[in-house]
Amino acid sequence: MKRNDHGWKLVSDSGCSLLVPDGPDGLAGIDIDIDHAEVPFVISVDNTDYIDEPGIDIEKMLEHIANCRSGGRTSCPSPHAWLEAWGDAENVIAFTLSAALSGSYNSAIAARHMALEKNPGRNIAVINTCGAGTMPGCLMQAVSDGVDDGDSFDVIAKTAENIARNTNVMFALGSLDNLIKAGRLNKFVGYAAHRFNISAIGVASPGGRIELRHKFRGMKKIYGKLIDTLRETGFAGGELVISHCMNEDGAEKLGHLIKAEWLDTDVSVVPASGLCSYYMGKGGMIITYRE
User: Which of 2, 29, 72, 260 could link 45 by a cystine bridge, Cβ 3.0 to 4.6 Å?
Assistant: First the structure.
């Protein structure tokens, strides 16, 4: 099928990246040539802004935060950033970090209103993923298949929304500090985490908030607890993505354990974005999966 520069574009913010196959040897052997882009969050520490885009020095950022009394703060993409990423594409599907955790969704909605005021003929859908991390590659594949099959924009956007909203998210948190400072978790939990060296596993609630499932001391128990949590959520195999903060060996180990438990599972391991690393801490992992 012939596609042009002004046809389709998929855009996500850096809190919910898209897993993009890289050619015929990419994910599941598929080759997707739909244009895609990512709009970055900004993590500010003291007077330094870390732009969450390829090349961000996550290790330096986390060290800076650890040595800064006030910690850091994050800024979601502006409406202008969304508009710039969409460009002149006639058909746009935008995916945002959970609206319960960030203003990115509202910013993208504002951008959509601005774009349609200028050109009412464009098709623009903004999808609140109610999650975080890296969205499974089946999302892009479904959109590509829909375009190839000649489906309408509304049908394709609805399919993409169903996949995004039915993607499960699980968090293995290396640190709870920044989540607590940002008001995403209870301060009492934060006090206990500091005093007793508590690590935690959480899941994304149906409304897109972080719901802690297991709390334990240290990180040694993390793999067994993650497998247990997958069982609790009814995982039976499928496509699964592990995004990690400076913990590739740990993510690979987890991937092998998951495949040993559920043979019919495709596991991808990718580095986490700066924003996700900021919130989950060094050693943390976000597991996204669709059965």
Answer: 72
